[in-house]
């Protein structure tokens, strides 16, 4: 292990503390009752972790015994500490790990989550003399490679980058004793399952490591993975619906598509908000809603896959630090992010996948704080609502919007900026558009087949702004944003250039004059 607690991260982050929100969730067994090394207990105390959350109370004792654990828990329940605490404790207790070889591997679906896990690990393990590294795509390749070469005890990464480094022999897997697969369902949804299996096959055998998996749902896909790669894991879960219902006040307005901006403005005028996350179903929707808000005097910015990774991280940092008050986001920001003190989550669009509703709403009222989740249910996405209510086992309370709540929109019409390159479909994103990977084929459930004909329409509004949506049947993957899964598109027919008549006296038609040539 390295002498100093050197923590490598690609982000220049000022925030190195896990915020210690006093939490009604964290009301279980005190951490001091576990047999934890004093240095770890100090780290927990400094982060304000005194009592366990329910998932921690269930997972930690099992993991401390060395059992494999498959946990059903969403972000916001304390799942990160549920695996970090026992891993750190066992790592401290065992004989010195192999020098320069990672002992702990945490696989996460998104860069944002990887960064967050690293920060939590840095905070909780601050007195442990461990070297921790995060690797993820989109930013400095060489810097992360050097961090790995210098020797890391704990590596957290997204599958693509991990595979890159493993193939080059920079990331060595032979000494890994602790494996965590975080947000496993999300890894599936994002199309990473083949990559994940590639990595898992290169680790020491399942009985020579301790494996933990956490997922918002333990569906058959995830369970299959646990059977294959884990050592008879103990299943632990916490009731996410209870967490939602207890903490976030929910409210839903029915409205027409054309009035949504006006209603959003009215809600923002009325509510006493401090930090607002607005969720939309499409990337262009994020741009459009942010544009409308800014032009109506609200401090908003849009974050979606249309931005490059650096800009996204910068925006998230701005939002986390409080510099930015309103963030309009696609589902990219819905999972795995620790943004505390979000007073309001607004579903500008009802999500297509009911679980996304749970995740979005879970961004407010985190770790015991109070918060409000407001949903605008328009004609375009209203068909998604019954599936959400089925998952919640309850109706989302409907509120009545009187005329005053619809505020005049002073913004000009939104026109998407011209882009140098055409916008590529993003892997595995859930646009909320019918036919997108998750909405159309949701785990083969009868729900997906039960979509109405409205679902087969191309998305209106934002989606139309920059892309031409195809008319497809529900579940048709060709409309999905998952490029890898998309059916091969028909080649567009080439237009024949009409040849100019040959200049008199020449044998051929004149081509464009070369630059710099006379007359060019
Ligand atoms: P997670 O579910 O791991 O994303 O955790 C969400 C947030 O809950 C963390 O950022 C911590 O601020 C907080 N948290 C987790 N466990 C505890 C705990 N035992 N006591 C206090 N806060 C906690």
Describe this structure in words.
This protein is an alpha/beta fold. The chain is 32% helix and 12% strand. It has 18 helices and 14 strands. The protein has helices at 38-46, 54-64, 79-93, 111-124, 141-149, 159-167, 184-189, 193-201, 220-229, 240-247, 260-270, 283-294, 309-321, 354-361, 385-392, 437-440, 446-449, 462-466; strands at residues 7-8, 69-72, 104-107, 132-135, 154-157, 178-181, 210-215, 234-237, 248-255, 276-279, 300-303, 326-329, 344-347, 371-378. The strands form two sheets. An eight-stranded parallel sheet has the order 1-4-5-3-6-7-2-8, sandwiched between helices. Strands 9-14-13-10-12-11 form a six-stranded parallel sheet, sandwiched between helices. Strand 11 (300-303), helix 13 and strand 12 (326-329) form a beta-alpha-beta unit. Helix 2 packs parallel to helix 3 (79-93) and helix 3 (79-93) packs across helix 4. It is globular. The N and C termini lie far apart (66 Å).
Mean pLDDT: 76
For the termini, the CA-CA separation is 66 Å
Strand share of the residues? 5-15%
Fraction of residues in H or I helices: 25-40%
Radius of gyration of CA atoms, rounded to a whole number: 25 Å
Unique ligands: adenosine monophosphate
Low-confidence stretches: 1-23, 427-493, 498-520
Strand order of the largest sheet: 1-4-5-3-6-7-2-8
Structural class of the secondary elements? alpha/beta
How many strands? 14
How large is the count of helical segments?
18
Broad shape: globular
Report the sheet with the most strands, covering strand number, pairing sense and barrel closure.
8 strands, parallel
């Amino acid at each position: 292990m390295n002498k100093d607690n050197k923590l490598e991260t690609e982000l220049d982050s000022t925030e190195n503390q896990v915020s210690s929100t006093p939490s009604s969730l964290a009301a279980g067994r005190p951490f001091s009752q576990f047999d934890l090394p004093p240095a770890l207990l100090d780290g927990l105390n400094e982060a304000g972790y005194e009592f366990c959350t329910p998932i921690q109370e269930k997972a930690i004792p099992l993991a401390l015994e060395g059992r494999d654990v498959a946990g059903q828990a969403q972000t916001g329940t304390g799942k990160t500490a549920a695996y970090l605490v026992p891993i750190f404790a066992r790592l401290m207790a065992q004989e010195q790990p192999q020098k320069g070889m990672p002992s702990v591997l945490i696989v996460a679906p998104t860069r944002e989550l990887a960064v967050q896990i690293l920060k939590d690990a840095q905070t909780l393990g601050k007195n442990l003399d461990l070297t921790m590294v995060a690797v993820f795509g989109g930013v400095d390749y060489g810097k992360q490679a050097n961090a790995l070469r210098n020797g890391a005890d704990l590596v957290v990464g997204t599958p693509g980058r991990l595979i890159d480094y493993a193939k080059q022999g920079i990331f060595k897997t032979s000494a890994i004793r602790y494996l965590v697969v975080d947000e496993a369902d999300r890894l599936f949804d994002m199309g990473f399952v083949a990559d994940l299996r590639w990595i898992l096959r290169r680790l020491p055998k399942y009985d020579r490591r301790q494996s933990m998996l956490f997922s918002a749902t333990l569906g058959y896909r995830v369970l299959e993975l646990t059977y294959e790669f884990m050592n008879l894991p103990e299943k632990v879960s916490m009731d996410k619906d209870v967490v939602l219902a207890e903490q976030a006040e929910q409210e839903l307005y029915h409205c027409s598509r054309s009035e949504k901006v006006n209603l959003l403005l009215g809600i923002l005028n009325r509510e006493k908000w401090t930090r607002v996350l607005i969720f939309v179903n499409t990337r262009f929707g994020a741009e459009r809603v942010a544009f409308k808000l800014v032009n109506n005097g609200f401090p908003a910015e849009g974050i979606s896959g249309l931005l490059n990774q650096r800009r996204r991280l910068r925006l998230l940092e701005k939002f986390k630090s409080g510099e930015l008050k309103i963030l309009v986001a696609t589902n990219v920001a819905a999972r795995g992010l620790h943004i505390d003190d979000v007073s309001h989550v607004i579903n500008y669009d009802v999500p297509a996948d009911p679980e996304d509703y749970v995740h979005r709403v879970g961004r407010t009222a985190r770790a015991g704080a109070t918060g409000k989740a407001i949903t605008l249910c328009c004609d375009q996405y209203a068909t998604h609502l019954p599936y959400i209510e089925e998952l919640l086992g309850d109706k989302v309370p409907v509120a009545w919007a009187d005329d005053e709540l619809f505020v005049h929109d002073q913004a000009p019409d939104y026109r998407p900026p011209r882009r140098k390159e055409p916008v590529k479909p993003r892997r595995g994103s859930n646009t909320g558009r019918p036919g997108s990977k998750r909405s159309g084929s949701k785990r083969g459930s009868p729900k997906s087949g039960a979509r109405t004909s409205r679902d087969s329409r191309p998305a209106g509004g934002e989606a139309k702004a920059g892309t031409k949506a195809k008319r497809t049947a529900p579940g048709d993957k060709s409309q999905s944003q998952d490029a890898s899964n998309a059916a091969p598109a028909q080649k567009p027919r080439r237009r024949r250039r009409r040849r100019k008549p040959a200049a008199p006296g020449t044998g051929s038609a004149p081509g464009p004059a070369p630059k710099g040539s006379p007359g060019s």
